[in-house]
Amino acid sequence: MDPVTLTTAQGVNLFGMLASVLWYALRIGAAIQVLPMLGGRGIPARSRLVLTIAISAALSALLPAPPPAGVNAATVLSVLREFGVGIAIGLMLRLAFEAGELAGELISQGMGLASATLANPLSGASSTVVSQWFYLSFGLIFFTVNGHLALIQLLFDSYAGMPIGTPIHDLPAFLGAVPAFFGVALRTGLLLALPVMMALMAVNVAIGVLSRAASQLSPMSLGFPVALLVGMLLLTLLARELQGPVQGLFEGAFGAARALTG
């Protein structure tokens, strides 16, 4: 009997398959909802839903069937636990992207582009042009180093470390994982922006000294174009060395997310 006929004859099993997909979609959908490049307001809700169902259906064929669920408090706690684990996994990668946006905000102050803002597709709020450049650069590096494949592997492995229906092994460590990685992301963003910030500060100091020596040189008319040109040159040089630190940050984010599920 071919698979189509067998599935048709045992059509009641389709509901079991659907229940498995929906159980796995809880954690996967929660992670995708907060992930950069894949979640947020920049991606339509239907696209996120289709992506969640597709990944859940693919993984449900490789993972064991979830335990039967009933209308009771244990099922509610399992659903909330799945949402919590998925959101925590997504927040780790989101913090890595926020490090790039922090670097862009700091550099924008020295370049005089703090008022040049665009709508951020991740949060819907306004952010500077340089922050958007860092966001797109981080996204390009993420897909270049096969971060999307590592994400699917991470989600798959999370069910081995914390299957559906099992309690969180170490709740205090789970709750403190995201704040702990926040410090790592903050330090990385500052270190990325620090060389450019120091160079731009030296340029602004030099322009201030020249304007004091020659009163004909206006720091407002001369300082902005010089700082802008120097900042663009430094960003071009930074882009050539950006992959190593960003890839290390992503590896740290994946390691921290993997530690959530043991």
**Share in helix:** over 70%
Strand content: under 5%
Number of H- or I-type helical stretches: 9
List how many beta strands DSSP finds: 2
Low-pLDDT residue intervals, each spanning 5 or more residues? none
What's the arrangement of strands in the largest beta sheet?
Answer: 1-2
Average pLDDT: 81
User: Helix/strand-derived class?
Assistant: mainly alpha
Question: Element order, helices and strands?
Answer: HHHHEEHHHHH
What's the short version?
With 262 residues, this protein is mainly α.
Write structural notes for this entry:
With 262 residues, this protein is an all-alpha fold. The protein has one domain (3-260). The chain is built from nine helices and two strands; from the N terminus they run ααααββααααα. It has a two-stranded antiparallel ribbon with strand order 1-2. A hairpin with a 6-residue loop joins strand 1 (117-119) and strand 2.
List keywords for this structure.
two-stranded antiparallel sheet, single chain, 262 residues, mainly alpha, 2 strands, 9 helices, elongated
Write the layout of secondary structure elements.
Layout: H1 3-9, H2 13-34, H3 45-60, H4 73-111, E1 117-119, E2 126-128, H5 129-144, H6 147-161, H7 171-213, H8 219-240, H9 243-260
Antiparallel strand pairs: 1-2
